[in-house]
């Protein structure tokens, strides 16, 4: 028994006539009759019986009709899904994202991606830079959107293992409590040298926010200020709001937290973060991931 025979049987059962079923299937009556006879012989059970009103399934035929209909429908669904996988419109995308980018810019990328790949389940992650690099390397993440303060270094350091494409720049500003005593705009950076700085732990493998400040203190010949290491943005902004420290971040973070926090330009201006799209160059990108890369390339601003 094969799927073709089941499809033939379903047509006969639905039409109640060999001739009508043959016409529906685009074939002549004799081959269809022979196929039904062969099916009954292979299974060793009678599936169809003639009645004054036409042909109808036997009890065994009813069972085959019910199960066979589900089987054919499942086969059709499977075929559509496999075609979707091949085209990148069905499947899964595991994406590690730098949070300030995801809060402001990522939704437009996802909307465009979702409009062409509605069957893809997207899962977002917020790992540390170290965990992001490891996850891209071992396949935990299909792609990563990261932000670095030293793009040339990152490109050189990972040229043999990862593909890196620049997406956009993110300006950096000082974030302070709204009761901050200095009204200067821009705010002289050396005025903040005695404050407690809330910063992520430096990542030697991937320069980021902390390295921006290191270069500024060096150029200003200022002794590095007190540093309090924070795990993530969710814990940083409430501390800034409470007046327990200051930090530097892209102003886009205020899209998620504005109460008690203000953004101030600095003098000198802080270096920008470069947002990059990263994937493992030693692994073949899935069709789903490839479609997302295409969306990013088409959506990213031309600077």
From TrEMBL:
InterPro entries: LysR_HTH_N, LysR_subst-bd, WH-like_DNA-bd_sf, WH_DNA-bd_sf
GO cellular component, one term: protein-DNA complex
Listed Pfam families: HTH_1, LysR_substrate
GO molecular function terms listed in the Swiss-Prot or TrEMBL record: DNA binding; DNA-binding transcription factor activity
SUPFAM superfamilies recorded: Periplasmic binding protein-like II, Winged helix' DNA-binding domain
Annotated keywords: Activator, DNA-binding, Transcription, Transcription regulation
Gene3D superfamilies per record: Periplasmic binding protein-like II, Winged helix-like DNA-binding domain superfamily/Winged helix DNA-binding domain
Origin superkingdom: Bacteria
Family classification: Belongs to the LysR transcriptional regulatory family.
PANTHER family: HTH-TYPE TRANSCRIPTIONAL REGULATOR CYNR, TRANSCRIPTIONAL DUAL REGULATOR HCAR-RELATED
Descriptive protein name: LysR family transcriptional regulator
């Amino acid at each position: 028994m094969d799927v073709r025979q089941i499809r033939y049987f379903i047509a006969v059962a639905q039409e109640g006539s060999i001739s009508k079923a043959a016409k529906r299937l685009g074939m002549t009556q004799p081959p269809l009759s022979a196929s039904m006879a062969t099916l009954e012989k292979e299974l060793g059970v009678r599936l169809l019986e003639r009645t004054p009103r036409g042909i109808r399934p036997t009890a065994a035929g009813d069972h085959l009709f019910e199960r066979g209909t589900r089987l054919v429908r499942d086969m059709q669904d499977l075929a559509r899904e496999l075609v979707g996988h091949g085209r990148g419109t069905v499947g899964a995308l595991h994406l590690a994202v730098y949070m300030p980018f995801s809060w402001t810019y990522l939704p437009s990328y996802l909307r465009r991606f979702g409009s062409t790949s509605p069957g893809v389940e997207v899962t977002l992650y917020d790992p540390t830079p170290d965990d992001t690099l490891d996850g891209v390397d071992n396949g935990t993440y299909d792609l990563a959107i990261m932000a670095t303060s030293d793009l040339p270094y990152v490109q050189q350091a990972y040229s043999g293992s990862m593909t890196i494409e620049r997406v956009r720049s993110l300006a950096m500003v000082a974030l302070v409590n709204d009761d901050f005593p200095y009204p200067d705009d821009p705010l002289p950076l050396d005025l903040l040298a005695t404050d407690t700085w809330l910063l992520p732990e430096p990542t030697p493998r991937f320069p980021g926010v902390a390295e921006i400040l290191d270069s500024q203190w060096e150029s200003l010949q200022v002794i590095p200020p007190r540093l309090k290491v924070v795990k993530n943005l969710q814990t940083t902004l409430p501390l800034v709001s409470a007046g327990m420290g200051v930090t530097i971040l892209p102003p886009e973070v205020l899209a998620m937290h504005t109460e008690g926090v203000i953004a101030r330009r600095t003098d000198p201006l802080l270096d920008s973060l470069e947002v990059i799209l990263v994937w493992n160059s030693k692994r073949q990108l899935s069709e789903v991931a490839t479609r997302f890369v295409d969306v990013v390339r088409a959506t990213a601003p031309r600077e």
